[in-house]
Amino acid sequence: MPTCCVPGCTSGYRNDTSPTVRHFFSAPSDERLRAAWNRAIPRADKDLTTKSRACSIHFHDQDIRKTYVHVINGETVEIPRGKWSLVEGALPKVFPNLPSYLSKPAQKRRKRQRESNGNADQGTASPQSQASCSTIPGDVVVDHMPEPSAPSFAEMECVELPPSWQRITVENGSGKFAAFFTLTSANKAPQIEKCVVVSSDGVATASARGREAKAFLSVSITTMLDLSDLINKVHSLHACSGYDVQSSTGFSLRCQALAKQSTCSFCRIEKKQAFEKEFSEAKKAGVQTEKGEKPSKESHQGSCCESVFHEEFGRTTREIDKRKILINQ
């Protein structure tokens, strides 16, 4: 688990007793913005690196994206984000464990409006100049932040793709979509191995071998960097190959579709359970033969299954049991 780099903060450490869930943000890769983080965080012993993390309590709410915002049938719908992100240019400004003077208030955005045309001797400005030079009284503050728009399909055509990836724009009865995918050959016929689909409203989903990747459902794409990061993330993962044992073949109902290994954790657990079931049945068949019954074909297969079980999972049982604990949590 990451730890917070802000002095006095215990987020991520063993002595952290806070009941609230902390989200962590990486220090910017952009050197100028990372230098601004260095100036904002009161820490003189060392500078931040791209591996440094700051937790969510050090940012104002308006600087954190906690939900995906969509407009469906004219209504604004907000969906909670599993992983929070920061708005562009956000800086850590809240330090509850340090002297209060070190914290900075949130900056409120002002929405400019047109001045009243009270002075006739100033002449009449054109609509363009009125719009560009408009102001509002100093006591009027609007906190609404404009929602970012999705990249156009023409812009998506320019995104840099990883090796072997292709792109295509599709328009059908459901709307217009941009698809980015990589192919694989199965039985001499090309099939889509991994795919990222982006709709016109900037909502992206990822899939692998025809199954939706649950970790990449309804991802909001507001910049070309968002799109590039998503495609590269999907590219770095493996399409889950499922499980294949003597009595059962397929995928777990909770299959993640994309995983760091060739098989996702849920399918690995499913495979282990299938082997355990076969092992148990084979063991029962072996007990029956010890009582004087004629050894059956199933009994012979059971002994083979037992050896395969120990060979296949003897080294990974502890790892999978740990995954079970994490999943149940």
Description:
With 329 residues, the protein is an alpha+beta fold. It folds into three domains: 24-100, no CATH class; 153-238; 243-328, no CATH class. The protein has helices at residues 31-40, 127-132, 153-156, 224-236, 265-290, 297-313, 317-328; strands spanning 24-26, 53-55, 64-72, 75-86, 165-172, 175-186, 189-199, 203-208, 211-212, 219-220, 238-239, 243-244, 249-250, 258-259. The strands form five sheets. Strands 5, 6, 7, 8, 9 and 10 form a six-stranded antiparallel sheet that branches. Strand 5 (165-172) and strand 6 (175-186) form a beta hairpin. Helix 5 runs antiparallel to helix 6 (297-313) and helix 5 packs across helix 7. It is globular and about 70 Å long. It starts with 23 loop residues before the first strand and ends with a helix. 20% of the residues are buried. The model is unreliable at 110-146, 297-306 and 308-316 (pLDDT under 50).
Helix-strand pattern, N to C?
EHEEEHHEEEEEEHEEEEHHH
The biggest beta sheet reads:
6 strands, antiparallel
The coarse silhouette is: globular
Total beta-strand segments: 14
Residue-averaged pLDDT, rounded?
75
Q: Which runs of at least 5 residues are low in confidence (pLDDT < 50)?
A: 110-146, 297-306, 308-316
Total helix count? Answer: 7
Explain the layout of strands and helices.
Layout: E1 24-26, H1 31-40, E2 53-55, E3 64-72, E4 75-86, H2 127-132, H3 153-156, E5 165-172, E6 175-186, E7 189-199, E8 203-208, E9 211-212, E10 219-220, H4 224-236, E11 238-239, E12 243-244, E13 249-250, E14 258-259, H5 265-290, H6 297-313, H7 317-328
Antiparallel strand pairs: 1-2, 3-4, 5-6, 6-7, 7-8, 8-9, 8-10, 11-14, 12-13
Subcellular location: Nucleus, Nucleoplasm
Keywords: Cell cycle, Coiled coil, DNA-binding, Metal-binding, Nucleus, Transcription, Transcription regulation, Zinc, Zinc-finger
Organism: Rhipicephalus microplus
